[in-house]
Write a structure and sequence with these properties.
Residues 10-65 form the HTH cro/C1-type domain. With 126 residues, the chain is mainly alpha-helical. It has helices spanning 3-17, 21-28, 32-39, 48-58, 62-66, 73-83, 93-104, 107-125.
């Protein structure tokens, strides 16, 4: 993820919605200084949960904010193939398919799926 794309997308979407940093931070339940640091490039690795909150307020997906919305399974597969030797595989076909499906979900579907995963993990921990 390049922060430049993230900064540009957040700024553009804030302008489209007519909101400032303070309102964005308030609606995303984040500190205003954290949002400011992201927008000024001081936050080098903003966490995915914060980006998710910003995306929700801005009416888009995390992928759109970070510039991954046009990536599909075949592109992931192609990228992975270019970095592996013929005998290695970073991701299975199933993992790539799961990522592709995940990207097609809307935020509330993702939240539901995360809840299911957490419930399964909790049962295994017992």
């Amino acid at each position: 993820m390049t922060n430049e794309h993230l900064i540009r997308e957040i700024t553009r979407r804030m302008e489209e919605k007519g909101i400032g940093q303070k309102r964005l931070a308030l609606e995303a339940d984040l500190k205003e200084t954290y949002v400011r640091d992201i927008l000024k490039g001081k936050s080098k690795r903003p966490d995915v949960f914060s980006i998710g909150r910003l995306a929700q307020v801005l009416g888009c997906s995390i992928e759109e904010l970070v510039g991954l919305s046009t990536v599909n399974a075949s592109q992931v597969r192609s990228s992975v193939d270019s970095f592996k030797s013929p005998s290695q595989s970073l991701y299975t076909e199933e993992e790539i398919a799961i990522v592709d499906l995940w990207r097609s979900l809307v935020p509330n579907q993702r939240e539901h799926l995360i809840g299911l995963f957490e419930a399964i993990a909790d049962r295994r921990a017992v």
